[in-house]
Amino acid sequence: MKKAIRVITVFFIMAFLVVGTVVGFLTVDEYNPKDVETLEINGDAKSRIKTGESVTLLSWNLGYGALGDNADFFMDGGRMVYTADKERVLSNLEGDIEEFNKISPDIICTQETDRNSDRSYFIDEMEYFMSNSGLSVLHGENVFAPNLKVAFIPLPVPPIGKVYSGLSLFSRYDIASAQRLKLPCPFKWPLRTFNLKRCLEIVKFPVEGSDKELVIINLHLEAYDSGEGKVAQAKMLKEVLDAEIEKGNYVIASGDYNQVFSSTDISAYPVHEGLWEAGRIEVDEFNSDLTFWADNSVPSCRSLDRVLSLAPDRSPEGFQYYVIDGFITSSNVDVESVHTDNLSFVTSDHNPVILKFKLK
Q1: What are residue 236's phi and psi, to 5 degrees?
Q2: Listed residue (276, 172, 245, 202) closest to 37, CA to CA
Q3: What's the CA gap between 108 and 101, in Å, rounded?
Q4: Which residues does 247 contact at the CB level (< 8 Å), separation at least 6?
Q5: Which among 28, 4, 51 has a CA at the least distance from the CA of 333?
Q6: What is the pTM of this model?
Q7: What SS3 string covers 123-151?
Q8: According to DSSP H, which parts of the chain are helical?
Q9: Residue 255 host element (H or E)
Q10: Euclidean distance between CA atoms 232 and 198, whole angstroms
Q11: Per-residue model confidence as pLDDT tens digits over 332-354
C-alpha cells in the first residue's frame, strides 16, 4: 500500500511540474501586442483609387486552409483537431486561388490566414497565393496583422501546437498607411496565453485628387466568449468608425463579425439546439451615417459540429448555417452590389463575400 501511495504521489508531482512548466513557458512567451502598432506595407502598387471608379472587394475567412467540407472541429462540437492533411490544405489553397482568379477583385481581405503553423503544415499562405497566381491584386501591395501567435498550444489531445495566423489584405492600389489596433480580450490568465489576440487591421488608401482617404478595416471578432468580448469589440469598432467619419474619410469595415447584423433577416437559417449561436450587432446603436450589408440569400458560414460532406441533409433544417460575414460602409461610399459566392464550403467553413462600390 505504501509503495502504491508513493507511486501515485510521484505521478502527481511529475504531472504538476509538467503543467507548471508548460504554463510558465506560455506566460513568458505570451504574445502581448501594443494598443496600436504600425504594420509593414510590402510590394509596390502603381495606381491610386479614384472617385467614381468601380472597385471590387472580396472578403473571406479562409479557415487557415484546413476547414473544408471534410472537416469538423472540436471547438464547435466536432472531434477533429488536425482537420486536413497537407495534400488537402494545398488543395484548399488552390481552390481559394481559383476563386480569386474568378472574381478578380481589386482588394482582398482575408481572415484566419496562416503563415507558420503546425495545423497547416507551416505553409505561408500569403506567399503561396502570390507564388501561385498571376492575379494583379496579389502582386500589388499587402499587409498582415497577426492575431494568433503561440509557440505551442497544449490543448486538446493531440495538441494544436504552434500557430502564427492573422488578417491579411492585398491591394492593387497604393496603400498610404496600415495599423494594427488591439481589441479587448475577454479571456483571463492562463487561457489568455494561447487564445487569439484579436485586432482591427486598419488600412488607409490615398484617393486621387482628394485630401480624404479610403479606410478599410479588416476584422475577425470574438467567437467563443460568453458575450462580453463581442460587446466590447463591437464598441471599439463603433468608436473607430465614428472617428473616421468625423474626418470625412470613406470607410468600409469588412470581415467575419461572428455576429449577425440586426437588420439582416436570418429566418431562413434556424438555430439548432445545442449548437454555437452567433452574437448580434444592433445597427441602431451605430452612427446613422453607416449602412450594414449582408447577403442573406446564401449562408456565409457553416457549423463545424459535423463533417458537411457526410451530412445526409445539408438543408438549413438539417445542418446549421450562419450569416456572419459582411460589410459596414459610410454614406460617401456608393454600394453597387453585395453578394456571397456559394462555394458549398469546399475549401473553408466560410463562403467569400464580395462588395462592389464606388467612392462618391
Answers
A1: -65, -40
A2: 202
A3: 11
A4: 212
A5: 51
A6: 0.94
A7: CCHHHHHHHHCCCHHHHCEEEEEEEEEEE
A8: 2-29, 86-103, 125-132, 228-246
A9: strand 250-256
A10: 12
A11: 999 999 999 999 999 999 999 99
